[in-house]
Backbone:
C-alpha cells in the first residue's frame, strides 16, 4: 500500500511540476496581452492630456481582473504632487513587482525603455514611444504563443514521464 | 480703509508645501508659522538662492530655514533640486501641461499657480514650448474673505451693481479684491442691502477663480459661472449669450478691443467689473486702450489701489473719470 502511495505521489509531483512550467508560459502570454491593452489605454489617455497619476488610478480600477490594480494604485500614489521620485524610477520599481515576475527580461526591457520617456515629452512623441513599446511586446507575444504551442505539451508530458521513469527505476 | 490682508486670510502655506519634493518641503517647513502665512511667492532659480516674497518684503532662505538678507548665506538651488521640483509640480506629466507652460504658468489644485521661465521654442512666431526650465515662481493662492466689505457700499446703487474698474500697479491686490467683490455680490450682502447677483467670470488665465480642471478652487460665490482659460473677448460674449449674467467680471482690460467689448456688455444691459494695470489715473489715460475705456464714459466707479500700507490699500474711489471722489485714503487717515 505504501509503495502505491509513493508511486502516486512521485508521479503527481513531477506531473505538477510539468503543469507549473506550462502555466508559467501561459502566464507570460496573459501578461503580454494585458500590457498591450494597458499601453493602448495609456496612449489614449495621454492623447486626452490626462495626468499620469489620474491615468494610473483608472488603470488600477480597470486592472483588477488582470491583478495589476495594486501595482498601478501604488504607482499613482508615488508620482502624485510633491513626489520625491521621477516617473522612470517608479515605473522601473513597478515592473520589478512579483505580479510581473513571469515576464521575460526582453519584455521587461521593452517596458522599462518606455519608462525612460514616459511623461517627459509632448503628446505626439509619447504616442510614438508607446506604439514602439507595443510593437515590441506584440513581437514578444508571437514568440510567447509559439512557446506555448510547442512547450506546454512537452512540459506536461515530460513531467508525467519523468515521474513514471523514477517509479519504474525504484520499483 | 486699508484693506490690508489680515488674519482673516486663510493660510494656504501648508497646502502649497505639498507640491514640493521632500528636501525643499523640509526646508520650507522650517519657516516660522508667523511669517509663513505672509509669504505669497516662492521663487527658485537654478544655481541661485531660494527666494521668498512676502506682501511687503523679500528674503533669501538659508539651509536652516532662517531668513537671510545676504544671498550668499542662503540655500542655493541645484539643477537637481529644480528638476525634482518641476517633476513634483507636474506629476511627471509634461505632455499634459505643455500648452499651459507655453502660456507661462500652470494652475494647480488649491488655486496655486506656477510660472516658468527657460528656453523658449517658437513656431510661427509664437511660443510653442518652454523647455530646459531655469526658474519657477510658485504663487500661493490666498482667499481674504472680508476685504471687499469696506468698498462694497460705494459699488452698489439702488440694488444695482455699478460698472467698476479697479486700477493698480502689479502686486497691489487687484485680482484678490476683484475675487472678493465677485464672491460678495454673488452671495449677496444682507447687511448692505446688496442682493445676490448672477456673475459671469471670463477668467482668461485662471487667476480669478484659480480653476483646476475647470473647477474653481477659490470661493467666487454661489451664483458665479466661470469660463476658465477662455480668451477674454470670446468668453464675455459667450457668457452674455448663454449664462444670462447680471454682472460680468474679467481681469486686466486695457487693450484696443476691450473698449468695444465693455460697450457690448453695457448694451446688453449687464454691468461689469474689471481690473487694469496703471499707477494712477494720469498713467491710465496715457495708455491708448485704457484711455478709450475711460473716455467711453461707461465707468461708474474707479477704485485705485496701492501697496502703501500693504497690498490692497484702497487709495481712492471715484464716481467715474470726471466724477467726484467718494473716498480718499489720506482723508480717511486724517479723520481716523
Residues:
Amino acid at each position: 500500500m505504501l509503495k502505491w502511495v509513493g508511486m502516486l505521489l512521485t508521479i503527481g509531483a513531477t506531473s505538477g511540476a510539468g503543469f507549473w512550467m506550462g502555466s508559467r508560459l501561459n502566464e507570460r502570454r496573459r501578461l503580454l496581452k494585458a500590457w498591450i491593452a494597458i499601453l493602448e489605454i495609456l496612449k489614449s489617455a495621454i492623447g486626452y492630456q490626462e495626468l499620469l497619476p489620474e491615468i494610473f488610478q483608472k488603470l488600477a480600477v480597470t486592472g483588477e481582473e488582470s491583478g495589476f490594480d495594486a501595482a498601478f494604485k501604488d504607482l499613482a500614489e508615488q508620482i502624485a504632487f510633491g513626489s520625491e521620485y521621477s516617473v522612470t524610477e517608479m515605473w522601473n520599481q513597478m515592473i520589478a513587482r512579483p505580479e510581473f515576475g513571469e515576464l521575460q527580461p526582453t519584455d521587461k526591457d521593452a517596458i522599462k525603455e518606455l519608462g525612460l520617456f514616459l511623461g517627459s515629452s509632448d503628446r505626439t512623441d509619447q504616442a510614438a514611444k508607446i506604439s514602439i513599446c507595443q510593437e515590441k511586446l506584440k513581437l514578444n507575444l508571437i514568440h510567447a504563443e509559439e512557446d506555448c504551442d510547442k512547450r506546454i505539451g512537452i512540459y506536461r508530458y515530460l513531467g508525467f514521464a519523468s515521474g513514471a521513469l523514477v517509479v519504474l527505476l525504484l520499483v | 480703509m486699508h484693506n490690508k490682508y489680515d488674519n482673516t486670510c486663510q493660510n494656504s502655506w501648508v497646502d502649497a508645501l505639498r507640491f514640493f519634493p521632500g528636501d525643499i518641503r523640509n526646508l520650507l517647513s522650517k519657516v516660522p508659522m508667523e511669517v509663513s502665512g505672509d509669504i505669497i511667492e516662492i521663487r527658485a532659480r537654478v544655481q541661485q538662492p531660494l527666494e521668498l516674497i512676502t506682501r511687503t518684503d523679500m528674503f533669501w532662505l538659508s539651509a536652516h530655514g532662517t531668513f537671510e538678507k545676504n544671498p550668499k548665506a542662503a540655500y542655493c538651488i541645484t539643477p537637481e533640486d529644480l528638476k525634482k521640483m518641476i517633476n513634483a509640480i507636474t506629476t511627471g506629466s509634461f505632455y499634459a501641461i505643455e500648452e499651459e507652460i507655453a502660456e507661462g504658468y500652470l494652475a494647480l489644485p488649491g488655486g496655486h499657480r506656477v510660472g516658468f521661465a527657460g528656453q523658449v521654442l517658437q513656431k510661427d512666431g509664437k511660443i510653442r514650448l518652454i523647455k530646459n526650465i531655469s526658474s519657477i515662481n510658485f504663487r500661493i493662492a490666498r482667499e481674504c474673505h472680508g476685504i471687499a466689505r469696506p468698498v462694497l457700499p460705494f459699488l452698489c446703487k439702488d440694488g444695482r451693481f455699478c460698472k467698476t474698474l479697479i486700477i493698480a500697479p502689479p502686486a497691489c491686490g487687484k485680482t484678490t479684491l476683484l475675487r472678493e467683490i465677485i464672491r460678495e455680490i454673488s452671495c449677496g450682502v444682507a447687511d448692505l442691502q446688496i442682493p445676490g447677483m448672477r456673475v459671469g467670470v471670463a477668467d482668461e488665465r485662471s487667476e480669478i477663480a484659480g480653476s483646476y480642471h475647470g473647477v474653481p478652487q477659490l470661493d467666487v460665490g454661489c451664483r458665479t459661472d466661470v469660463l476658465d482659460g477662455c480668451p477674454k473677448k470670446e468668453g464675455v460674449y459667450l457668457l452674455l449669450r448663454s449664462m444670462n449674467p447680471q454682472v460680468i467680471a474679467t481681469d486686466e482690460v486695457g487693450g484696443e478691443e476691450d473698449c468695444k467689448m465693455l460697450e457690448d456688455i453695457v448694451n446688453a444691459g449687464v454691468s461689469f467689473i474689471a481690473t487694469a494695470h496703471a499707477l494712477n489715473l494720469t498713467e491710465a489715460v496715457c495708455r491708448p486702450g485704457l484711455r478709450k475705456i475711460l473716455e467711453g464714459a461707461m465707468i461708474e466707479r474707479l477704485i485705485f489701489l496701492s501697496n502703501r500700507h500693504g497690498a490692497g490699500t484702497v487709495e481712492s474711489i471715484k464716481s467715474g473719470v470726471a466724477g467726484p471722489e467718494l473716498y480718499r485714503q489720506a482723508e480717511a487717515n486724517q479723520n481716523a
In short: The radius of gyration of chain B is 21 Å. The CA atoms of residues 81 and 187 of chain B lie 43 Å apart.
